[in-house]
Specification:
Blueprint lengths: L7 H11 L2 H9 L13 H19 L5 H10 L4 H4 E3 L3 E3 L1 H20 L7 H12 L15 H22 L3
Antiparallel strand pairs: 1-2
Helix pairs in contact: 3-4, 3-8, 4-7, 4-8, 6-7, 7-8
């Protein structure tokens, strides 16, 4: 899916993230939730791939969407979950996960790396950050609304995968 991104800035960011062996290992290990959808080891990666695939398809159906932004956002939207959980006899919540949550942790992970990508200008950084910030809905945004069609699309695609997987795993009730 990262190979479908052609914008040099977004591609550079994805290459940097995917080139980080420790981050890749955490991405493969983490669950997506503790008791909801994809609540098992490896669930985060499964959900990420599903949302990325839906983003690719949405871009084909709606060619006016910035697919480079949408696919990148789909691949990094839950990146903070790599730091949200602890692992032992049970999957727990880390102290940063409890205090900040995965959205803030993900934005921080991106901010730590994004400055290393000179091709990723301030406008594209802002657009990506907005998508990550609003992937659970616009309530987290200062304006309380979506600032781009890509942010709206990510929100809906994320919810689609989470709700369908949740229904398959836990039923409709």
């Amino acid at each position: 899916l990262a190979g479908e991104v052609h914008d040099p800035g977004y591609k550079g960011l994805l290459d940097l993230l995917l080139g980080d062996a420790a981050l890749r290992a955490a991405w493969r290990r983490a669950p997506c939730t503790r008791g909801g959808h994809h609540s098992y080891l490896g669930g985060l990666l499964e959900h990420t791939v599903a949302v990325g695939t839906l983003a690719l398809e949405a871009g084909q159906l709606h060619p006016r969407l910035n697919t480079d932004l949408l696919i990148t956002a789909a691949l990094v939207h839950d990146l903070g979950k790599t730091e949200e959980f602890t692992f032992g006899a049970e999957i727990g919540i880390s102290e940063p996960g409890r205090l900040l949550g995965h959205v803030e942790l993900g934005l921080r992970l991106l901010d730590e790396r994004i400055t290393r990508i000179p091709a990723l200008d301030a406008d594209r950084r802002l657009a990506l950050g907005h998508c990550v910030l609003t992937h659970h809905g616009p309530e987290a945004a200062p304006t309380r609304r979506f600032g781009s069609p890509e942010a709206l699309a990510l929100y809906r695609l994320n919810a689609l995968d989470a709700s369908v997987k949740g229904a398959l795993e836990h039923g409709l009730g």
